Predict the 3D structure of the following.
Amino acid sequence: MIEQKHTITEIAVTDLLKKTGECHEKGHRLVQIGCTPLGDCYEINYTFTTSWDFESLRITVNDGDKIPSISGIYWGAFIYENEIHDLFGLTVTDINVDFQGHLIETRIPSPFKNAPPVTKVKKGGDA
Amino acid sequence: MGNQIVVPFGPQHPVLPEPIHLDLVLEDERVVEAVPTIGYVHRGLEKLVEKRDYKDYVLIAERICGICSFTHSVTYCNAIERIMGIEVPARAQFIRTIWMEYSRMHSHLLWLGLTADAMGFENLFMNAWRLREEILDDMEATTGGRVIQGSCKVGGIRRDISDDKLGEMVDHLKKIRPLLEESNRIFTHDQTVRHRMRGLGVLSKEDAWDLGAVGPTARGSGCDMDVRSSGYSAYGELGFKPVVFTHGDCLDRCLVRSEEVLAAVDLVERAVAKMPDGPIEEKVKGNPDGEYFAFSEQPRGECMHYIKANGKKNIVRHRVRTPTLTNIPPLVKMLEGIEMADVPVVVLTIDPCIGCAER
């Protein structure tokens, strides 16, 4: 099996737009933006590629931090940035298509980090 | 300039197998802007990984989608196997590849049928689905399941396919190949199909790349990108070449899928011819500790499973980037400027799988 190479570079939030701009200038495609909650903070990976060698820029943010949108550089980034906002409650500023928390419409309001109360159901009966 | 009105499209619509909502801003009959909304089938499957043993979770990963199910389980397993340094036996890699190509065939035939149905071409719809049943029969005979197989596991596969059965599968594919070619010929040359889809919903090669289009959506716009080219599983040994068309319209996205059905038949035949002997699984000990981004080419396009683990049986984070999610921005671009009546066909040509996109 051939290995897909992947380089991960940790960067500061303040360098995000600059580094993303460099990826765009090099002709990289935006593959994804993914968020990982790690205790009190969040790790966000911005993955790019030209062929099958992948490169991820990684930032670490806390609740309340503002993350600049890269949708000015990669127009399609809005879908990931709105998703991160809706699922994790993080604030992404200046998104080109900002759904204001309405990309993912669920009965339980997002973000889902505050788990809803669990109603226990008795076996074979109503709650 | 006419007055602008907003017309809701979906979440329930005859051409949509799954619910997505679009607010279409129209000027007369022309779409000026399309605003998507998802969330109707959000299941929180990524979150569930924190509660399940990583080996058992394969079965949940498979249920992310009811069509690309097997490819989801393989991609998840690939990620775990790379983190744990497990070398999957060659025979298991080949059989995984065969089942992934069967998934591609049945997914594309399903889509081709739905597209024919959306155009009102009922005979073509029934023909495509009849052929799909033939593919599903072999899937069921070898895995026990038609759309959910449960045959992949961390370290290999659960079931072997005997050499006799592999020969029968190839014979069966040889038998239905002329029927697939005939179906392909209709999609390529029939005037009804061409009239409905040629020049519609055009996505340029530059836009496809910039907006992150993947799969047949990107390859229909001339982007030569297919994760199978990277040689994962057994693809590196099968001489794989992507199917690429260049017009970027609905017809070319359709033709990519139609041709890929035949390409999948070729890949299965080559995989059977080169099938190595040996075990079908590697014993797995311990828990994963580390992270990995695994990529695969699902029928709908490039899929990514990101796993972060900390040495315990429950994984810390499982992030799935599905092809439909990344094809939404290109879809929004395709819809701008088209007639309201063409919206269903254009939406269908990205082969939206909302269950996948929402996990």
